[in-house]
Amino acid sequence: MPLSALFSPVRSRDEYELISPHNITPLSPLRSGSKTFVEKLRYTVRLLRHKRTLYILCGLLGTYCVYILSSGIPPSFSDIRDYERQLPQHTWDSRGKEDGRKYFRVSDPNRGRGFNNVIIEGLMMSYISYVSNRTFVFNDYIWANHPLPYTIYENALRPSRIPLNAFISGPTAGGPIPNSTYRAVSSDYYDTICPPGDRYQLDTKDAPGVNSDGITLVKWWRDQLESTPDRCVEARKPVLDLFFFGADRLLPFWDGFRQSPIIQEYSWSFLVYSAFARNFYLFDTMPKSSIDTKAIIDGLVAIHIRRGDYEQHCYTLFNERAPYMGVNSLPELLDRFDPPQDKDELLKYYLARCLPTTKDVAQRLRSLRRDNPGLKKVYVLTNAGKLWISQLTDVLIDDGWSDVKSTYDLHLDAQQYWVSHGVDSLIGEKAEVFVGNGFSSLSANIIMFRLARGIDAITNRFL
Description:
Strand content: 5-15%
Shape: globular
Largest sheet: 5 strands, parallel
Helix content: 40-55%
Low-confidence stretches: 1-34
Structural class: alpha/beta
Number of strands: 16
Mean pLDDT: 84
Radius of gyration: 34 Å
Strand order of the largest sheet: 8-2-1-10-9
Distance between the termini: 113 Å
């Protein structure tokens, strides 16, 4: 084929001829401008749509942030942290490694659990450390384990962690122990003198099962801790499971626990006592000394009404046929848990003691007033809604009580607000008569401390 054929204008059906740029007819300015305008218009509309969505999202986020912040920014408790750092057993230098003390810490403490469950477990771990001649390592009250100082809960800020000494004092929180040098230390101090390489992880796979009683459990832990030569010992799981406190397994070693310095030297924190002192005016008849742990508020009956989560939890307790909490089953207490056999009556029995109506509460308090004619006033420890408490107050005033106050009547500053559980508990301990919820750890703790202070067991009653 001659070379000129390669440049022949003839093309096959499957070939395309290049178009000379000289043969292209340009678009008219109007047509070109119209296309550009339409594209710009479409782009602008899309952009505005995205921006509008972004503005809406930013607005919603900003509104939510303002709503959260409207509840206030919780305190840092920096003064109480400084107090803990300055405890005399915290040497913060090499002497801490040479003083011969041995330590015990639960390295994975409970997080996000109720305050009273954490307190009773801390007391038990402190007791096990005490009988094992080891120094207990106390932790903050931890709600959320992250580096931020606050967390969001129920659309409000709350402290991620609160120092233990904001709530309690005494041996468990680093206070002195009579005839002992094993004062508890903070987890921060422990991390300083017990680096990770020096820590022995205690194997708990052979620990007694859930059906073991308190004496067996404590003896096993004591044997393990005493036989371990390592200076820094940790357990990765809680020493005692939650079911231990919810049954009568605690009772066999109750006397030894109650008489130990862990309980006898226990006290609420200065912050809790300051809140109690601030609210003296709620009660006409006050003890001679507000700091005297054995002083009683004459004429006052304190009653624990738990609602909120209990509106569902009480039915769970019924379905599981749960008994009273361990301490609430002590034989010296007058009100026994004696459920009927009939299922319909059984549900009524549970609800009257776990989730009482205002009528149930009024009837129960009326019967106690017949037995204790000196009772004049009522204080309600509660998480119930304000409307429900208002209705209960009206019913009790109509039933002859001279005054009714509740948790909502407490005047608390920013720090005191976050330890209000302790303030309620202290008022319950000081009342002439305390009426508890037998299924509640808060009620169990109040009764435990009342008995430990020598207050007559017959003044502790249940709904």
